[in-house]
Amino acid sequence: MNDATRHLIDIDRLSDDEIETLINRACALASGADPGHLDASVANLFFEPSTRTRVSFELAAARVGMQPINIEMAQASTTKGESLEDTVATLAAMGIGCLVLRHAEIGLHARLAAALPAGVHLVNAGEGSRAHPSQALLDAATLRARGIEPAGLKLAVVGDVRHSRVAASGLRLWPRLGVEELRLAGPADLLPAGQPSPGVIHCSTLEEAVRDADVVMMLRIQHERMDRSGWPDPAAYHADWGLKSEHLDVAAANCVVMHPGPINRGVEIAAEVADGDRSLILEQVRMGVFMRMAIFEWLLKR
Q1: Is pTM, for the whole model, over 0.90?
Q2: Mean pLDDT throughout 101-109?
Q3: What is the Cα–Cα distance from 281 to 133, expressed in whole angstroms?
Q4: Average pLDDT, stretch 1-19?
């Protein structure tokens, strides 16, 4: 790999300046700034299901002048026994300038990035339960576009934190943006193992997590990363951990609700909250396109 070739692998590999550049550019694009024109092609390789992330990367590429190529993995050569490394090398040899990859294997994105030829960029669009950097960045941009700065906030993350790659990237990003208090809440077996990191508080109830919180981030149960025997009963889960209107009565007066999607109404969030005036869920979806436009610009414009 050429050291001058940028990739988006995880939050930790971004400098503070790069994080600010990406967030500010996404907000500018959302406010009507003219996008650049990138003369490049991008291949989307999604080995796990996706609607929001995949479509937003497709739209983002088209809006900045790139040619998006969607590879249906059921028809890809990996089904014939070709390694992903060889598939990626083949696409690079065809002149693909950027690869957007979602895959369950931990460490795969870093390994592939190290093997790519100079000038070919890799974007992590979701890696197992470890990382989803573009989602964390767009969440921060959604708040900033609303005039809400993360610095000094009390932010609650509630649900299946242990298996959530969104939460994993958020836990790396939010402290760097100055969040004052980062609260995690959910059933004990769905919280990260071990002692909380410095500045992170484990809450034993939803009410404790939400009290005086400025932002509440709800997460779905990651059934696909759990043994079926560990799936909680939906009704019982909603009773104990589902965000309802009454919970927001004890939150900060201007508290907003976020969710990376897909949402499960009546499980981790009540419909009236998901659709309520405090919800930023669809604003997150909208910002996803602009953040991914900003990511493509950052990768390809030096």
Answers
A1: yes
A2: 95
A3: 18
A4: 88
